[in-house]
Amino acid sequence: MVGLAGALGGFLTIFLLGEISARLVGRRMLAQYPVLRRVYLVDWNAAGLRYRDDAGDVITYSWSEITDAERSRDLIMLYLGPRAFLVLPMRLLDPAQTDDLWARAAGESG
Q1: Is the pLDDT of residue 30 over 70?
Q2: Which of 45, 53, 80, 104 has CB 3.0 to 4.6 Å from 84, enough for a Cys bridge?
């Protein structure tokens, strides 16, 4: 019983330390990189994907620029290269938009 309590205590300590450090690192990154705090608008059509930010900057990516695409329960990641990618949270899209975006991205990259 003592071993179980010790293991549980160790697990909780590791979990809490990880949770606290993740929050601190996240806050520090938001403070150091103002671009992470910008509001982005995303839209797409047959020609490609367009990002607009709150400063009025527009970046357009053609579907052929997307080299790979991955989809999880929470995110769609569109790869432009080995270390360049776009992350789109699934919670912002309705199911029809998710399916349309995935079909276009995966169709070009796959």
Answers
A1: no
A2: 80
Q: Are 41 and 52 in contact (CB under 8 A)?
A: yes
Indicate if 21 and 64 belong to the same structural domain: no
- Maximum mean pLDDT: which of 2-6, 12-16, 26-30, 59-63: 59-63
| Chain position carrying tokens 């276009």 | 104
Q: What is the 3-state secondary structure (H, E, C) of 3-45?
A: HHHHHHHHHHHHHHHHHHHHHHHHHHHHHHCHHHHCCEEEEEC
pLDDT value for 90: 87
> Alpha-carbon distance 40 to 50, whole Å?
10
* 27 and 42 assigned to the same domain: no
CB-based contact 101:60 (threshold 8 Å): no
Read off the pTM. Answer: 0.63
47 Cβ contact list (under 8 Å, min separation 6): 60, 62, 63
Residue 76 phi/psi, 5-degree rounding, is: -115, 125
